[in-house]
Structures are given as structure tokens and as C-alpha cells.
Amino acid sequence: MSEPQRPLSPTGRIVFGLLFVGFGIFPMLAAFDLGPLRQADINGPPWLAFAAGGVFVAAGLAVIAGPQRRLLNALLVLLVLAGMAALGNWIAFGAGERVCAGSFPLFGMHELSGLGCRIPFGMGALIVNAVLALFAVTSLQRALGGPPRLARLRRFTESLLLLSLAPVLLPVLLILFGRVGFGALRTRLRTGAWPRNEAFIARRQAAGSKRESGDAE
Fold it and tell me: CB under 8 Å, gap of 24 or more: what pairs does 74-77 form?
């Protein structure tokens, strides 16, 4: 068995967190045309660099704060998710032309433009938006004392997350069901009988026997 991972020490958290903060400061300064990066290096409006850098700064501050400061951590995670959502939403739904690079199996790197760039970022943006909404509701729910407060709103955000994941989950499920069905059909053609989950059948029979013995008593 592998040894359990030890949490970072306070010094380790500070060093690790400051590295993230340092990575984020440069693009944030570029939004104001300061530092080694300039606004001309930003492929979009200046606030994009501020949002991208803010993601790293907020993540670094969350590491420094540690898990004990739950309220502060929740606010910082909200800032991280909000920054990621802002970036994805601008790329997917903002005005102007979009050009991005994409990697495809067997085809290597290719440049995508228009809808070819917007659609994958749009799917990711919708997922991050739903995660942001769900995290905000659950954090507020905990701050108010937990369930059943905001139960309807939480179920609504959970439904939004499932809907946003549907374009990703449905193909995966179809592939899994297709593989299972193909394997069952191959077993049927090879042996003349459909495959049986003997362990599942045995558990069902054992459960039925326990119920019958309980009714008899």
C-alpha cells in the first residue's frame, strides 16, 4: 500500500502559493501595459490578461491560506472559477473572429477558426459556468447553515451541470454501451447463449433467500 500523502507545511504552502501568484502578476500587469508583457501581446481586450492572471493569483492565495480558512478559500475558488468562466465565455461567445490551434489524433496540430474554435470552448465555458453556479450556491448554503436552505436552487444548478456535461457524457455512454453490446453479441454468436453476470445473479438470489427466511420467521 502507498503511504498517505502529507499535507504541505506552512512554509511549503507559502512558497508554492507565491509561485502561482508570481505567474499571475505578469499578465495582470500587461493589462495596464506595465511589466515585461505589453497590451500588444494580448490576443484580445486587456481584461483577458487580468482575468487569466487573476486565476493564478487567486489559486496561489488559496494555497497560502490553507484549508482551515474555509470562507476565504471559498471566495478565492469562486474567483478562480469566475476568471476561467470569463475567459471561456469571451472566446466562445464574444464578438470578433476566433483562431486557435487544435491537436487531433493522427492529424497533428491544426489551426481552427470560426465555429471550429468557438464550439469546443463554448462547451467548456458552459461546464465552467455550471460549476461556478453550483459552487456559489453550495458555498452560500453552507454559510447559511446547510440544507434544506437553497435546496431548490441547488437542484437547479445541479441540473444545469448535468445538461452542460451531456454533450461529453452521452458519446462516452454510447461508446460504452456499444462495446458491451458488441461483446454480448459476439459471445452469443460464439457460444449460442447470451452472457450472464453470475455474481450479480448470485447476489440477487441470496438477497431473495434472506427476504423469504425473514418472512417465514
Answer: 74/135, 74/139, 74/142, 77/135
Task: Please tell me the distance from the alpha carbon of residue 105 to that of residue 55, in angstroms, as a whole number.
Answer: 30
Q: How many angstroms separate the CA atoms of 212 and 217, rounded? A: 9
Give the three-class secondary structure for 101: strand
Of 160, 116, 164, the C-alpha closest to 136 is: 160
Nearest-5° Cα angle at 39, 34 to 41:
115
Q: Rg of the Cα trace of the chain?
A: 25
Model pLDDT for residues 138-172, shown as the tens digit of each residue: 999 988 888 888 889 999 999 999 999 998 888 88
Beta strand 99-104 with 108-113: parallel, antiparallel or unpaired?
antiparallel
Q: Taking the CB of residue 216, how many other CB atoms lie within 10 A of it? A: 6
Percent of the chain having pLDDT more than 70?
84
Using CA atoms, how far apart are residues 116 and 6, in angstroms rounded to an integer? Answer: 43
What letter represents residue 126's amino acid? L
**Cα separations (Å) of 139 from 82, 83, 104, 151?**
14, 18, 38, 12
Measure the CA angle with vertex 43, ends 34 and 55; round to 5°. Answer: 65
Give residue-wise pLDDT tens across range 68-80.
888 899 999 999 9
